[in-house]
């Protein structure tokens, strides 16, 4: 075999749901060693998923995680050589295959989506300040690429194995000074402001006005003070980079 054929055969052996003895034989030089190598590769992948998605791994159980991971590796194998990219690929695969998860508890997929977003925020590239201006309410907001916004129906950000129903918006933000990702549980109005701002085509003042109108609220003193404190904190933490 030429090198490209060897690489293809080894990839097929490692990623298929069941090992193909013919592939191990074709690779030559003690086929049993290639089978051991396959188990090492798959074991490393499972370890990476458990570390990146601990709550989801607990929800799924060892057999459930291994079953879904096996389908993922066989049907939508990772295109990146970086271990850090395994979890996002796995989450996308599972969320896109509802027929594989019909028997799971209702919060399981939501926790998977949440932990996937946490992992993405942690590994996101550092912010690029090209085109970013000083912050101004009359311009669209420029958020860090490490931010992740999602709406949930269960309190999946808690460590409770059986989370309570809790419909809210979350904003996952990474402090650029520490690299730590924090989960912010937003009020309904704040959730709408962030969601509108992330669309990127409206100035922040317009986003605030629309969010208030949706909830039939007005911008009182307490609201404006709270909004000012929040925006100031986000600017200091690097969550809000400025304006565009």
Which features characterize this protein?
two-stranded antiparallel ribbon, 244 residues, 5 strands, three-stranded antiparallel beta sheet, Outer Surface Protein A, domain 3
How would you characterize the overall build of this protein?
This protein is α+β, with helices and mostly antiparallel strands. The protein folds into two domains: 1-104, no CATH class; 127-244, Outer Surface Protein A, domain 3 (Alpha-Beta Complex), CATH 3.90.930. The protein has nine helices and five strands; from the N terminus they run H-H-H-H-H-H-E-E-E-E-H-H-H-E. It has helices at residues 3-15, 21-27, 31-52, 54-75, 86-95, 108-123, 188-199, 204-214, 221-237; strands spanning 141-143, 148-154, 165-174, 181-186, 240-243. Helix 1 (3-15) crosses helix 3 and helix 2 packs across helix 3 (31-52). The chain starts with a helix and ends with a strand. The model has no long low-confidence stretch (mean pLDDT 88).
Domains (count): 2
Shape category = elongated
Q: Quote the average pLDDT.
A: 88
Following the backbone from N to C, one meets helices and strands in this order, namely HHHHHHEEEEHHHE
Query: How much of the polypeptide forms β-strand, as a percent range?
Result: 5-15%
The CATH top-level class label of the largest domain = Alpha Beta
Helix coverage percent of residues? 40-55%
Structural class, from secondary structure content? alpha+beta
Low-confidence stretches: none
| Computed Rg | 22 Å
Counted by DSSP, the helix tally is 9
Strand order of the largest sheet: 2-3-4
| CATH-defined fold name of the largest domain | Outer Surface Protein A, domain 3
Largest sheet: 3 strands, antiparallel
Please tally the β strands and state the result: 5
Distance between the termini: 54 Å
CATH architecture of the largest domain: Alpha-Beta Complex
């Amino acid at each position: 075999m030429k090198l490209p054929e060897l690489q293809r055969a080894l990839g097929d052996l490692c990623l298929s749901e069941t090992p193909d003895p013919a592939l191990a034989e074709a690779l030559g030089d003690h086929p049993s060693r290639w089978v051991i190598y396959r188990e090492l590769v798959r074991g490393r992948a499972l370890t990476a998923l458990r570390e990146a998605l601990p709550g989801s791994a607990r929800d799924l159980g060892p057999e459930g995680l291994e079953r879904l991971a096996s389908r993922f590796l066989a049907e939508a194998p990772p295109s990146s050589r970086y271990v850090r990219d395994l979890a996002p690929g796995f989450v996308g695969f599972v969320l896109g295959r509802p027929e594989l998860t019909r028997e799971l508890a209702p919060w399981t997929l939501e926790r998977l989506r949440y932990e996937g977003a946490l992992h993405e925020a942690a590994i996101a590239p550092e912010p690029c300040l090209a085109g970013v201006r000083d912050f101004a309410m009359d311009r669209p907001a420029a958020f860090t690429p490490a931010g992740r916004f999602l709406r949930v129906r269960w309190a999946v950000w808690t460590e409770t194995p059986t989370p309570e129903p809790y419909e809210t918006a979350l904003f996952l933000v990474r402090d650029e000074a520490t690299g730590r990702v924090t989960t912010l549980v937003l009020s309904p109005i704040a959730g709408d402001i962030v969601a509108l701002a992330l669309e990127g085509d409206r100035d922040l003042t317009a986003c605030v006005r629309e969010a208030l109108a949706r909830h039939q609220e007005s911008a009182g003193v307490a609201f404006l003070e709270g909004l000012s404190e929040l925006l100031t904190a986000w600017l200091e933490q690097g969550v809000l980079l400025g304006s565009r």
